[in-house]
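Lab notebook, bench 4. We co-purified these components, and the gel suggests they stay together. Before we commit to crystallization screens, I want a quick structural picture of the whole thing.
Request: model the full complex, all chains together.
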Amino acid sequence: MPIDVEALYRRYGPMVMRRCKQMLRDEEQAAELMQDVFVAIVRRRDDLDDRGVSSLLYRTATNLCLNRIRTARRRPSEPSTELLHQIASATNEADRSVARSVLTKLLGAEPPSTALIATLHFHDGMTLEETAREVGLSVSGVRKRLRKLRASLRALEAGT
Amino acid sequence: MSDRIPDLTVERLALGELDEAEAKRVRMQLQAAGDTRLEEIERSNSAVLEAYPPTTVAAAVRRRVKPSARTSSPAMRWAMGIGAAAVAAVVLWWVARPDPAIVAPPPDRELVARADPPPDTVRVKGEARVVVHRRTPGGSRPLTPDDEVTAGDELRVAYQAAGRRHGVIVSIDGADAVTLHWPASEGADTALADGGPVWLDHSYALDDAPGFERFILVTSDGELPLDVATVMSAARALAARPDAADGELNLDASLQQHSLLLRKSP
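Here is the predicted assembly.
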């Protein structure tokens, strides 16, 4: 059954917009990314299960924003997003082998990115248990991923 | 970690997606903390839907998901009330000396409306070109493959699509880092504008990665957009290989690849 894009956007669009604005601190970029999120979702899935849609959209928005922040690393950045820049920069190399579309993870093909995990835990304030539940890993799996960023994470933890 | 309820949990409460027990717990915790996020979400919902109407956004999403001939991406963005479209830039392999007639890039942050061709325009095919300028105190200077660049150099890039319909620009450097330059995100449109040169809308500064900075354009003559995630994955694989400076991305043979290599000063 095809997706009712308008209904999907009407219900979840504001949440996606808030997430993008929170991470990018720029209304115009947030609006662009918001549309990109829905394009990414609709393009890859003809049917959406009602369960977990908010989580899917939230994670997609997070990943696309991290990509934008990572790209902007070589351009002037906003001080208020320094934590996200640190995460994006620290995980650029670490995620080389695991950074994939969040949708492929949900299709059972690829694991969630370390950048996403670090964002949910350090930036969003989710506990390890909440983060694990959100990305579909065990708590020990989340800890293991975060441990890999030890040098950068110490600086992040000191700031939270 | 603080006791602050994560934003996603509050969002789910507002959406009615929490079970009864958890919803009650979260509400009580928000009230006890004097946390007004739930009320703010309800106000924000109305504001977002008013600023970006569902019919408009949904139409734009549907057009991008199933593009017809030459539908204008900037028109979608204008319809969302964002304003002038961002300039798309594609970096291509520069096989000829720089053309002195090439116009210098516009100032940073000056958004240039992208001139999308009308649907029935016949694109004149030729050799796609990349132009990369380095900022100088007096303006900018075009770079050639023989030029060296250094950490801190500010670069501006432009492309001439020469009839190619879709493109993705990535760069890889000597530290194996991969950066997506065009489109701006993995879900965005990859349609190229003809004519040119078409400049990226802002400059970027090189970091201290050693060895080289290499820009790669992947183009297609097909109607459908390129899969940016696939190109990024191939770029990451190439970045880790010994031939990262001159090898090809492992992509479908129907896609064309052009690259420009800039050596980093030691």
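The longest helix of chain A spans residues 5-24. Worth comparing against the SEC data before the next meeting. Chain A touches chain B through 53 residues (CB under 8 Å).
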